[in-house]
Amino acid sequence: MSTAAISLSELQNFIADFWFHYDEAHYAEIGAAFAEDAVYLSRSDSGSCPFEEALSADLSGADAVISWLTEHRKASPYPLRHHATNLHITGVDGDGDDAVTHARFYIYVNQVTNFVPFGVSSGVANVAVRRGGNTPSGLQFTRLEVILDVTNSEPLEGAGLPGAPDDATASA
């Protein structure tokens, strides 16, 4: 096992591989992506959307995470496609075998109805990944957090959105 830092390209490959296997319902590969001590959190950005119960989870331990993801996938349509975009590393904790790489990305999900693909979900994912997994890349999630967008989009300026001052202006 390499103790070198996880590169952005390794991380991108691991995350793309995970979502491919999730979409294709390859349950063994989904399970291999999680460390025994993994944490999984999913919810909407508001925490109170009409289908919050279907997407909300706060789980610890690979067995609980894998069980929930398996049931969630079985209840979802096929084909289903998860796209991870704008992946970037936000930090690294520790070094050597114990190093954990933190990253963030947008997630976009589409499905097909009447022969036409259309978007069904989007959000922000935060992950923590370390070496040592049973995946082809040798990486594993220690944390996967998915916060799905359900709040209606509004103009940023003067909208009173969290984190945006009322006098905020978009920059070019």
TrEMBL record:
Organism this protein belongs to: Mycolicibacterium wolinskyi
Protein name: Polyketide cyclase
Domain SnoaL-like: 9-112
Domain of life: Bacteria
